[in-house]
Every structure is written in structure tokens, then in C-alpha cells.
């Protein structure tokens, strides 16, 4: 198994460094390469850099940084920057949860999404905090052990969220659906030294849908949340209704 490892916190982040070491010792990993942003690119979502050149820097031992987004990193890694095409993309370990609506903004999930776009099975893994990265790394290695034997839908991205607690306190693993957050908090307004207005994006909203079966509920209860995501965003239940409506707008 040839694994491409990326993230959105940057190649020096403790999460990706912990996971890199864990995967180096993973017996099924024949080749491991890390290609990650040269700095923190959290919430970059699926953005690609199209108007500027991308440059890689070799840090040795199969570790590269890129002056771009998480999606750029995976795109380069699968589509020509390496002498081979990886068999799998793993993104993380992110410092902070990627649950519910977070997946739409997350650079961690976006890196996995790009891997899936390019035909590779992909996993995004996040720690719901910033302390026990070793817990998340151990969980992932256990899941990888027989993942190749599972008959998973080829359109699936696996999104994993791990409670920020010691491994001995993890109660188990639950397959979940995405919860939903309340609207984000208002922007924070400030004034720069020249008197001009400047703004910070406000914090994400608290969980609105965190009932049993959601990723929020599982993590809060001490379980690892594993959520299968799909790329197709089509709202199939609305197709017929919208078709009837559109037909009334264009009648010869």
C-alpha cells in the first residue's frame, strides 16, 4: 500500500507528524510520502491555486511542503509530482473537530475529497482537541489494518473524529451521520492603526442537531465517530418538484 499523507494545518503540525510516525511503523505501508501545506491553511476548503505557480520543498525522508492549499498538495501528489500514483490518501490528524457543517469548510476533508476525485480511497481524520494525537493515530492504524478487505462504495470518503482523550478512555467506534451546527457567531470588528475597519470571522456555531446517531453525539459520549461522506451533492428528492416548476417557466 502506497500512502499519500496530507493535512491543512501544515507539514510541521503535531497531528500530521504523529500520524506520519505511526504510519511509518504500519506493516502494510510499502511507501509513505507526506505532501502538506508550508503553513496553516485551515478552512481552505476545496480551493485550488490556479493563478500562481506551485513549488514543493523537499525536507527529506519523504516529506514535502507546498506553497498552496490542501487540495493543491493532494492534486500534485496524485497527478504528477511523484514518480508513482499513491494507492490511498489520508488527511490529518487535524487539530480540532470536523463534524457537521465543518466538512464544507474543512481543508482536512477537502484534501481527502481531492483524493477521491482522483480515484483514490480517502480518509480524513481529526482530533476534537489538540492534545492526544497518539490516540487518533492508533485508531486510524487499527482501522487501516483490514480496510482493503472491505467492500466500500468507491464514491465514499471516510471522515473520522476522535475524542481528545487517552486511548484507554475511548469507549468504542460508532458509524454516524453528520450533525448540524447553529449559524456561526457574528464577525469580530476591530480598527487598524490607520483607523480603517477590519474583521475576524467569528467562532463556529454550537451544535444544533447533536442527537443520537450524529457525529457530535458519538464524540461527546466518548466514542470515535466514523462518517461515510459522498461527493455527489445532488438533492435527488427535489428533482421532480423542481422539474415541474422549471417547466412552467419555459413553455413554447
Description:
This protein is α/β, with parallel strands linked by helices. The protein has a single domain, classed as Survival protein SurE-like phosphatase/nucleotidase (Stationary-phase Survival Protein Sure Homolog, Chain: A). The protein is built from 7 helices and 13 strands. The strands form 3 sheets. A 9-stranded mixed beta sheet has the order 3-4-2-1-5-6-7-13-8, sandwiched between helices. It has a two-stranded antiparallel sheet with strand order 9-12. α1 runs parallel beside α5 (133-144) and α2 runs parallel beside α4. The longest helix is centred in the middle third of the chain and has 12 residues, at 133-144. The mean pLDDT is 90.
Record keyword descriptors for this entry.
252 residues, alpha/beta, nine-stranded mixed β-sheet
The poorly predicted ranges are: none
Query: Tell me, what's the shape?
Result: globular
CATH topology: Stationary-phase Survival Protein Sure Homolog, Chain: A
In the sheet with the most strands, the strands line up as: 3-4-2-1-5-6-7-13-8
Identify the CATH homologous superfamily.
Survival protein SurE-like phosphatase/nucleotidase
Q: What is the overall number of helices?
A: 7
Helix content: 10-25%
Largest sheet: 9 strands, mixed
Radius of gyration: 20 Å
CATH level 1 class label? Alpha Beta
Instruction: Domain count, please report it.
Output: 1
Indicate the CATH architecture: 3-Layer(aba) Sandwich
Structural class based on helices, strands and sheet pairing = alpha/beta
Helix and strand pattern: EHEEEHEHHEHEEEEEEHEH
**Strand percent estimate:** 25-35%
N- and C-termini, Cα separation: 58 Å
Q: What is the tally of beta strands?
A: 13
Mean pLDDT: 90
Amino acid at each position: 500500500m502506497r500512502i499519500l499523507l496530507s493535512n491543512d494545518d501544515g507539514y510541521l503540525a503535531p497531528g500530521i507528524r504523529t500520524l506520519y510516525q505511526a504510519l511509518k511503523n504500519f506493516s502494510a505501508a510499502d511507501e509513505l510520502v507526506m505532501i502538506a501545506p508550508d503553513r496553516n491553511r485551515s478552512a481552505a476548503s476545496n480551493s485550488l491555486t490556479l493563478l500562481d505557480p506551485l513549488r514543493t520543498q523537499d525536507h527529506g525522508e519523504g516529506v514535502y511542503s507546498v506553497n498552496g492549499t490542501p487540495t493543491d498538495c493532494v492534486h500534485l501528489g496524485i497527478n504528477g509530482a511523484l514518480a508513482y500514483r499513491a494507492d490511498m490518501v489520508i488527511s490529518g490528524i487535524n487539530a480540532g473537530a470536523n463534524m457537521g457543517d465543518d466538512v464544507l469548510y474543512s481543508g482536512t476533508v477537502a484534501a481527502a475529497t481531492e483524493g477521491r476525485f482522483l480515484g483514490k480511497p480517502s480518509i480524513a481524520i481529526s482530533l476534537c482537541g489538540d492534545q492526544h494525537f497518539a490516540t487518533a493515530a492508533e485508531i486510524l492504524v487499527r482501522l487501516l489494518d483490514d480496510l482493503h478487505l472491505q467492500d466500500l462504495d468507491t464514491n465514499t470518503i471516510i471522515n473520522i473524529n476522535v475524542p481528545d482523550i487517552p486511548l484507554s478512555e475511548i469507549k468504542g467506534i460508532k458509524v454516524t451521520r453528520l450533525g448540524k451546527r447553529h449559524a456561526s457567531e457574528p464577525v469580530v470588528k476591530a480598527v487598524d492603526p490607520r483607523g480603517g475597519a477590519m474583521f475576524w470571522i467569528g467562532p463556529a456555531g454550537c451544535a444544533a442537531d447533536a442527537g443520537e446517531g450524529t457525529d457530535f453525539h458519538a464524540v461527546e459520549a466518548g466514542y470515535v465517530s466514523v462518517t461515510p461522506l459522498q461527493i455527489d451533492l445532488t438533492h435527488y428528492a427535489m428533482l421532480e418538484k423542481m422539474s415541474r416548476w422549471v417547466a412552467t417557466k419555459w413553455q413554447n
